[in-house]
């Protein structure tokens, strides 16, 4: 398709234009550029939203087309959001206009209905004047709990599970948090404590708190769970324009429901929205004002508010607490603690948004670390007097104007990344589904190996998958052990028989303990560990010959 074609020029991608035309041929309509176009960019994921006109036998319809990179669970998210939504909240959701279309490259085309039937008459929350941001954030946060989640359920879980849920796919071996943290040396088990150079505080390394075996991992906690958007930044909240007047926050509409979940911590969306407001305005504050705002988030009774961002914090926190307290179900104290956990997890996630610039990303790291120190103190976990000093590890260029937020990512591996992303999303609410998604990711890797991919490449990616499974399911979960068994096989195919033999023996011992000595999986690993060709190869590798 020529690049000067109007549709290609509008979508800014020949590939997207080809996929959209292919989808239309299959479904009986033809796409074109509308006379009154609309465009927005989702800076968190690099996704693009535009309006397109779809003309077919049943007439013409204008929809929002979203082009999402690989790793999306959007079709299921939209369907679940529509099914689960209480009637009173339905006007606040922009739902799917038709099923999504998977692209050959691994991306997804999704089609959303127009907000209020006139997206050009709406603006995102990013266009609110600063003086109106605090009130809008508080209003949206209150409605999310009061109307979308009028009766949240209580889930008895662990602190580690909550933190893993809040940091999400960013913690994956190919995720955006690990992309920078690995380079900074902050993922090593030898760095559980850090000294923040800006204020000298010794704090837990927040990046390690979500890992299995951390000091907080197995500690029990009761969490209020319910419907969750999962990516509630300012570009995903549209506000209608009053005729001849300002934007109307009371008519807000949520778009981009692909990450929807029916049972995540109810503090996730309000905290994400609040930190999005801070991310957009923090670069305008002087260092002393940034510090005051951080102190206010860590200890609201002792910090001082400074400008509209302090009002945003107070408004959102008050809206969440008052809504839950108003239900008189006795969970206010648990909610206070849950808010702190969500702040830690989402703040860590915000460290991965490279377009925020080094100072703002460092601010979010410090916020997570200081909040974690408070949690340790509350739980009576001792904090050492000294720890290695941690300077600001971020060095990417500061954007002009604090615009879009873009997560650092490794090169896309569409099918595997999609399955792993779904496993991380399901980790908190549905371990069975998470296990199935990890199995699907392995099936993609095994298929690549059978199709001719080098065993070494399969091993590298499979080690990442084992690491993800360990964090999502646990090191002795049958699903994790199954992946480790397969890793041993591919390791042998790659020529490292000694490591393969050691892995088979370790997996056999764990399966014996977890599944029992007579379980077929236990017997399979034990049989592989005694396989004569493997023993011969391992002996030759060790002794030569």
TrEMBL record:
Residues 397-410 have a biased composition (Low complexity). Residues 387-396 have a biased composition (Pro residues). It comes from the Bacteria. Residues 387-410 are annotated as: Disordered. This is Tetratricopeptide repeat protein. It comes from Phytohabitans maris.
């Amino acid at each position: 398709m020529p690049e000067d074609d109007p549709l290609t020029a509008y979508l800014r991608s020949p590939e997207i234009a080809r996929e959209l035309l292919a989808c239309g041929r299959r479904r009986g309509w033809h796409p074109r550029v509308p006379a009154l176009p609309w465009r927005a960019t989702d800076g968190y994921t690099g996704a693009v939203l535009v309006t397109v006109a779809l003309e077919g036998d049943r007439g013409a319809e204008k929809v929002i087309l979203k082009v999402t990179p690989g790793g999306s669970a959007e079709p299921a998210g939209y369907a679940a959001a529509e099914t689960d939504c209480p009637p009173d909240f339905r006007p606040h959701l922009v739902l799917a206009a038709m099923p999504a279309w998977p692209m050959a490259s691994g991306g997804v085309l999704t089609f959303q209905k127009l907000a209020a039937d006139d997206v050009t008459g709406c603006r995102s929350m990013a266009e609110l004047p600063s003086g109106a941001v605090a009130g809008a954030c508080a209003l949206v946060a209150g409605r999310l709990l009061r109307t979308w989640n009028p009766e949240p359920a209580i889930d008895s879980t662990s602190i580690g599970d909550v933190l893993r849920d809040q940091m999400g796919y960013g913690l994956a071996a190919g995720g955006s948090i690990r992309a920078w943290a690995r380079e900074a040396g902050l993922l090593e088990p030898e760095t559980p404590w850090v000294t923040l150079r800006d204020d000298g505080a010794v704090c837990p390394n927040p990046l390690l708190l979500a890992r299995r075996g951390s000091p907080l991992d197995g500690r029990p906690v009761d969490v209020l769970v319910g419907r969750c958007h999962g990516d509630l930044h300012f570009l995903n909240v549209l506000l209608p324009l009053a005729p001849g007047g300002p934007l109307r926050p009371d008519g807000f509409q949520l778009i981009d429901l692909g990450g929807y979940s029916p049972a995540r911590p109810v503090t996730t969306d309000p905290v994400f929205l609040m930190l999005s407001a801070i991310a957009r305005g923090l670069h305008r504050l002087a260092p002393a004002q940034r510090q005051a705002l951080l102190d206010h988030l860590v200890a609201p009774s002792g910090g001082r508010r400074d400008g509209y961002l302090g009002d945003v914090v107070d408004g959102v926190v008050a809206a969440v607490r008052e809504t839950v307290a108003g239900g008189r179900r006795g969970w206010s104290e648990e909610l206070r603690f849950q808010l702190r956990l969500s702040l830690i997890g989402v703040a860590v996630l915000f460290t991965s948004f490279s377009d925020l610039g080094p100072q703002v990303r460092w601010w979010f790291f410090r916020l997570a670390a200081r909040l974690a120190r408070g949690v340790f103190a509350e739980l009576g976990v001792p904090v050492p007097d000294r720890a290695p000093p941690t300077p600001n590890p971020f060095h990417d260029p500061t954007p002009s104007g604090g615009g879009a937020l873009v997560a650092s990512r490794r090169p896309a591996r569409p099918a595997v990344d999609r399955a792993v992303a779904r496993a991380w999303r399901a980790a908190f609410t549905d371990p069975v589904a998470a296990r199935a998604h990890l199995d699907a990711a392995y099936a993609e890797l095994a298929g690549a190996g059978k199709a001719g991919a080098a065993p070494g490449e399969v091993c590298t990616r499979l080690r990442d998958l084992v690491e993800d499974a360990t964090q999502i399911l646990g090191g002795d979960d049958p699903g994790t052990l199954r992946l480790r068994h397969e890793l041993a096989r591919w390791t042998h195919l790659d020529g490292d028989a000694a490591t393969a033999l050691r892995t088979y023996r370790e997996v056999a011992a764990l399966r014996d303990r977890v599944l029992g000595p007579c379980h077929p999986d236990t017997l399979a690993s034990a049989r592989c560990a005694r396989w004569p060709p493997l023993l011969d190869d391992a002996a030759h590798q060790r002794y030569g010959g």
